[in-house]
Amino acid sequence: MxxxxxxxxxxxxxxxxxxxxxxxxxxxxxxxxxxxxxxxGLTSNLGKFVRYLTxxxxxxxxxxxxxxxxxxxxxxxxxxxxxxxxxxxxxPRPGCTYSPxxxxxxxxxxxxxxxxLHQEGYTAQPLFALLDLPKLxxxxxxxxxxxxxxxxxxxxxxxxxxxxRVYAMVILMIDSGLRAGELVGLKLADVDWERGVFxxxxxxxxxxxxxxxxxxxxxxxxxxxxxxxxxxRPNVDNLFLSLDGYPLTVNAITHIMKxxxxxxxxxxxxxxxxxxxxxxxYLVVGGDTKSLQMFLGHASPFMTHHYEQFKDEQVxxxxxxxxxxxxxxxxxxxxxxxxxxxxxxVPSEEAASAx
Length: 355
Known about the structure:
By secondary structure, the protein is mostly helical. 54% of the residues lie in helices and 5% in strands. Strand 4 and strand 5 form a beta hairpin. The strands form two sheets. It has a three-stranded antiparallel sheet with strand order 3-4-5. The protein is globular and about 80 Å long. Helix 7 (161-176) runs antiparallel to helix 9.
């Protein structure tokens, strides 16, 4: 009887629809402690899969789902798509393409979801275990050079409220490598001015302490004492505030960086580029990867060691610019075999006697 009951339970589970399972999955992730941003990303990615199946006339029952459905879905994402379909605020944009990173993230989401289905007993094996991850292009990040950093700072007027705030943010992000989300979440109470460190809550609600350089400390203290507006509410303790005293958002940081990119003449400038620049500059001036990993908040040393490559490229670029021999103005000489001189003709004995 128990065997039949178990078979009946398996059959009932296989009749469950995909939207309901996604609801269960996100609830389990929320209980586990995943951030709101992570939950929104999971719901969005899995929602794309559900919409694809619905538009294709495919059944949404778990029993009817195969890895071939997932592969066809990924193939559709690699072609021309309609972005923001089903978005509550942004209108759909047809004729677009997803980046390789977006497609790669979609695959990892489907694989993690299928693993959860197996762990929870909904499937005998992970459905998408054999779903291959698409290759990502090996792109190189061109970090800001010292001259470009000065160029960015030179276009900011630190004597105004807006300028003092942006100046302090840029200095802090280059000095400490903060992410945009960490920057807007930084609290005034998290800064230990005497020790020169501040507390950061990074990805996964992981807490870490980040050192504060002497220049960054001076610039930040100037903003707090002279330009930081009065908080709009007593419970607002964010370090960086808007003009009306409310905390900044990541979207606000994005717009600030876009304006700064335009004004500085460096169009590739964005918030995360400042973080990459911090990592490379730290290694260039003699820092080590272990301490860099700690204050950047990397879970594994892989990404931190990735900065070693950027550091080598930065050193090479600097040498090309400040080559000692090039600075002396030594003109290159043309070396070659050239013409060989004709051998001297030694007079013969007959010629000598004739003379």
